[in-house]
Amino acid sequence: MNHQDIYISLDIGSSSIKVLIGDITNNQLHVIGVGNVKSNGIRKGAIVDIDATVQAIRKAVDQAERMTGIKIDEVILGIPANQTTLQPVKGVVAVNSENREITDDDLERVIESAQVMSIPPERELVNLIPRQFIVDNLDEIKDPRGMIGIRLEMDATMITTSKTLVHNVLRCVERAGLKIREIYLQPLAAGFFALTEDEKNQGTAFIDLGGGSTTIAVFEDGLLTRTGVIPVGGEHITKDLSIVLKTPTEQAELIKKQFGHAFYDDASDDEIFEVPVSGTDVTDQYSQKFISEIIGVRLEEMFELVLDELARLGVRDLPGGVVLTGGVAQLEGIAQLARQVMQTRVRIYTPDYIGVREPAFTTAVGLIRYAHSEDEFYGRSPNQTPVYATIGAGSTPPKKQTNTTEKENNPNKPSVINRAKKLFDKFFE
Ligand SMILES: Nc1ncnc2c1ncn2[C@@H]1O[C@H](COP(=O)(O)OP(=O)(O)OP(=O)(O)O)[C@@H](O)[C@H]1O
Ligand SMILES: [Mg+2]
């Protein structure tokens, strides 16, 4: 029998708000609904206007709802990496059961025990990513359930962020009438699936070139280890074009997307287009080569800033190279330019799902996939309210272990009827 689950993600970006409805049947994701609305009220990844943001979220939700007939109630929310700190934490518990078999309950308790570490009042916990479990003295365990032991330990990375930042995001989501099913740090969810196992293990910089910000996430030994955010993105390229070509921002944005090229040497002299001049009836003619210089200068600066940030984060070497994503990564010639400036291997990641084959959708897709792989690991259903922490131990997406006790004792296992009811609630209101 087919097993079908519905996952809905919300990515509140500086340029646009994306809502995706994903249907996961037999472990295959199909994106069945997309909402994508220009955002107002977000600068450099942080919310500066609550009302405008709430409105844009509602609009994006409506779009996705209309496409599918599914009423959106709960979302998987991405938190931007601004002001994020990653720090190692440890949890320890004694195994509870008489036969000393480690169960879901022990796993839950060890995760909780790692969270008791005091978090400063101005910080908020976003995710806890297990690095390894240790059963008695045996380490490097990815999933301890089913093993026999006395003492269960967990080494994890705790991700915290500014309380103000996260509370403003939550406020907007709640005011848009949505519940939150799960929260993940954006580059954690996005990078986990955009990078190959080798890239995650070798040391790779995952760079999300967004509208208002550029997010750097470094993966090493299979885990997210460092993050940094630079307050520049595609909007700066648009602004440069708008100033130099003397054309309105909307025009500059269209031209960038249609004719833009990042690498002067490869840009075309023959690709000529008309550009309306602001405040007049006249148009000017420009070539792709001409604008590639403007775009290239700004991008070069952005990549230099990325290099500075990597140095500040203490990254000396990137054996796995660089993976670019985010809306700006769609620019032709960007990989060549990045290779030249950063002097390393560079590839572009674009999600490979019908309806979202653009690098701007990487985060929204990653949120769904991350939530699904956690559900698999914990044996929970997307309709349940999760109580667990983030799992991401090891280099492979966590796989659920068959565990009879959990299967028998899980009263919240979804029934097909419940899920159908949820989907059709809309029609009974
Ligand atoms: N085909 C394209 N060519 C060039 N730039 C593009 C293209 N498509 C999108 N962009 C640019 O990508 C940016 C938006 O990217 P994205 O949707 O990833 O950002 P965001 O998530 O809204 O913002 P942020 O991550 O900074 O909060 C915009 O500046 C847009 O102009
Ligand atoms: Mg983004």
Description:
With 429 residues, the chain is α+β, with helices and mostly antiparallel strands. It has a domain at 229-348: Nucleotidyltransferase, domain 5 (2-Layer Sandwich), CATH 3.30.420.40. It is 35% helix and 29% strand. It is built from 12 helices and 18 strands. It has helices spanning 50-68, 104-115, 163-175, 186-194, 197-202, 234-244, 249-259, 288-312, 334-342, 362-378, 404-409, 416-428, and strands at 4-12, 16-25, 28-38, 42-43, 46-47, 74-79, 85-94, 123-135, 138-141, 151-162, 179-185, 204-209, 214-220, 223-230, 272-276, 283-287, 322-325, 346-348. The strands form 5 sheets. It has a 5-stranded mixed beta sheet, with helices on both faces. Strand 12 and strand 13 form a beta hairpin. Helix 6 crosses helix 7 (249-259). The radius of gyration is 23 Å and the shape is globular. It starts with a strand and ends with a helix. The model is unreliable at 384-429 (pLDDT under 50). Bound molecules: adenosine-5'-triphosphate and magnesium ion. Magnesium ion is lined by residues 13, 208, 210, 326, 363. Its main location: membrane. Self-interacts. Interacts with FtsZ.
